[in-house]
Amino acid sequence: MMNSGKLEITTPSDREMVMTRAFNAPRTLVFECYTKPELLKRWMTGPEGWSFVVCEVDLKVGGKFRFVWRNVRGTDMGMGGVYREIAVPERLVNTELFDEDWTGGETLTTLILTEQSGKTFLKSTTIYSSKEARDGALGTNMEQGMNASFDKLEILLENLEKN
Predict the structure, then answer these.
(1) Of the candidates 46, 68, 49, which has an alpha carbon nearest to the alpha carbon of residue 57?
(2) What is the dihedral of CA 12, 16, 22, 25, to 10 degrees?
(3) Strands (E), 7-154
(4) pTM metric for this prediction
(5) Is the pLDDT confidence value at 5 over 80?
């Protein structure tokens, strides 16, 4: 069940993690915030004190993306992937692999955006290589980082709609 304004994380199977959250904005704008580097850099920054130092997006099927974040100690965390499916503004499927392979191999993430009464409901499903890999990811500060980023996305969406 979708929530409203708060991140919810569930594990419907041994290898899956599903994140849901609602935003008070049209899905075309949420999709743009997920796919345009100039917008990604404004919200996907992780926990307080982190910065988004590399944000490259080649938005086409088979196109690659590369993201690198830097924590408060100056340590980089990078990841990249390949876009597998793109259906603007409702669906985005991509692979992901962190530079330091703490997730046990490549993951597959499906982002689905649905809109109802001016609200966008986000559902992001990630499939890991194993239950251990999924549980390892859940054991990190990932939820804290995603919550912080989604809160920034909500503020960005509000500002973009005003302009």
Answers:
(1) 68
(2) -140
(3) 8-10, 16-23, 51-57, 64-70, 76-87, 91-98, 107-116, 119-127
(4) 0.91
(5) no
